Amino acid sequence: MRIKNLNLLNFKNYEEESLEFSDGVNILTGNNGSGKTNLLDAIHFLSMSKSAFHSSDNQSLKRGESFFSVFGTFNKNNTDYLISTLFQAGKKIFQADKKNYDKITDHIGRFPLILVTPYDTDLIREGSEERRKFFDSLFSQIDKNYLLSLIRYNHFLKQRNSLLKQFAEKRYTDFDLLESYDEPILEEGFKIFSWRKNLIKEFLPLFNNTYDLLTHRKENVSLTHQSDVADPEFKITYKNAIQKDLILERTTKGIHKDDYQFLIEGQSIKSTGSQGQQKSYVLALKLASYHLLSKYSHTKPLLLLDDIFDKLDEERIISLLKMIDGDDFGQILITEAKLERSMEYFKNIKKQIRIFNISKGKILSIQNV
Ligand SMILES: Nc1ncnc2c1ncn2[C@@H]1O[C@H](COP(=O)(O)OP(=O)(O)OP(=O)(O)O)[C@@H](O)[C@H]1O
Question: Residue 61 in 3-state DSSP?
């Protein structure tokens, strides 16, 4: 799969711009703040129907403007698809070939993409929610039913939590009403747990292999999925937690508390890994996601690499570029502020290279190498 072109109107710092991409490697270069990452985000918008960096569409609207639009042509299995979004008056329209989607969830996973960003180390540093979001986003692209199940689970969980709050305020508990949410929560929870467990099992060898290739087997890494639901007696544990749930005014047991433990040499990478090791770890997580997504989507997803060279040593940069230049990967977009420095690395790439020189939300020049 590839993106052939992109058109922006009033998207972040772009007033009006059009780009035609190479099928190989596209390098976006320019000074800090010129708009390189914004271009990747526009492509992310078309693939995932939202920005990778903000939850509110308003933040993608160029300051002082009243609407933005992003258009792009994806090519998948030799067929072109025109994907477009228009945001105006707080409302977003999302279309494929000029037709609105009934549900935006129908779009997720159609044009798969993996974005690697400097913020990825938040997956290590931040709390379990970041890690759940990361795997949820991957598994949702792999299987739409996962996403639908997760939406249903979160809906019932929210309802149950608001009941718990109401009961605390009124100092009265309707146990029958509360119990009516247990069945859908448990049903969806078991399904989600089983998806996570099986997909992580498939993910792990891909991750280990990628990390080894990236680092020449410098260290052993692993990851584990931790869930209350893994306990065969979970149903009882969940029911027994009712008193605690009433006191804390929230549901304390379930897949919404799952976490993924990231390990290096058997220890938590958060406390023992160097910055370079942490960066390699999250890079391997993203590239392994690419392989898993590639398998399930029967296409090579787009790979967007934002500012990836920082903190990687030369050996790891060379391994990374060799890897993504291989046949397992398709079209690639890379942002790089210091192109002169990295041209040394790029010159060994066999794929066709197109360089976009960017300044203040404008493409100044394009060069095919
Ligand atoms: N909604 C918006 N309206 C106008 N400008 C915006 C908006 N959102 C972001 N920008 C501008 O976009 C610029 C940042 O662009 P971007 O993050 O793409 O830069 P970059 O080229 O990737 O930089 P770096 O090399 O530092 O990572 C900033 O100047 C910021 O002010």
Answer: strand
- pLDDT < 50 positions in the chain: none
- Assign residue 23 the CATH number of its domain: 3.40.50.300
Beta-strand ranges (E) seen in 54-184 are 67-76, 79-88, 91-96, 99-100, 113-116
Beta carbons of 123 and 285 less than 8 angstroms apart: yes
| Boundary-marking domain end, from 298, 329, 359 | 298
Residue 104 and residue 163 in one domain: no
Does 30 count as an annotated binding residue? Answer: yes
- Length of the chain measured in residues: 369
ipTM of the complex: 0.98
Q: What pLDDT, in 10s, does the model give residues 186-213? A: 999 999 999 999 999 999 999 999 999 9
SS (H, E, C) 241-292: CHHHHHHHCCCCCCHHHCEEEEEECCEEHHHHCCHHHHHHHHHHHHHHHHHH
Domain of residue 260: give its range: 123-298
C-alpha 50 to ligand 1 mean position (Å):
17
Q: How far apart are CA 39 and CA 25, in angstroms?
A: 15
Cβ of residue 33 lying under 6 Å from some atom of ligand 1: yes
The answer, yes or no, to whether any atom of ligand 1 lies below 6 A from the CB of 120, is no
Question: Positive or negative, the Cα torsion across 52, 126, 190, 196?
Answer: positive
pLDDT at 269: 97
Among 14, 31, 37, 308, residue to substitute to test ligand 1 (most atoms within 8 Å of Cβ): 37
**Domain presence at residue 117:** no
